Amino acid sequence: MFNVGDHVVYPYHGAGTIRNIEVKEVLGKKLSYFVLYFPLNDVTLMLPEDRISSSGLRKVIEETQLDELIHALQNGIQTKNENPKQYSRENENLLKTGSIIDAAHVIANLSLKEYERTNGLHIQDRKNLDKAKQLIVSELILANDMTEDEAYAFIDKNVQVSQGA
């Protein structure tokens, strides 16, 4: 299970830290809540303990998993959708999983798409690309003691390799 001080990832919110576990009385019932703080967004939220397993909350990646992250940033995944709305929806669904590898696939795919297009990405694709980068940056900061700038540079360096730069 999780403890106070653990660095965790909450799907679509990014990486944060468990600051506290509080007991609250709600409708005459005592419930435990995990108090999560997300420093990159400066957001605090309370997650009921009985919803932890279904929430997708997980610990941040370990340094040993960086090679897998780099591979995902360089390779992406094949998408089947040519329809821009469906393509955007697929990327949004990948981001909602909370998986750093899925976020890396979104970055790889959209970076390649942006590189190949002469007029840039559609607005929804740009939003998904920014969100994916933000999710990975938040996790790299907590998991690997990187600064925000170092984390963005890490992403850019590894994505450029897949574009032949």
From TrEMBL:
Pfam families membership: CarD_C, CarD_TRCF_RID
Q: Which GO biological-process labels does this protein carry?
A: rRNA transcription
CarD-like/TRCF RNAP-interacting domain: which residues? 1-111
Could you identify this protein by its name?
A: CarD family transcriptional regulator
UniProt superkingdom: Bacteria
Higher taxonomy: Bacteria, Bacillati, Bacillota, Bacilli, Bacillales
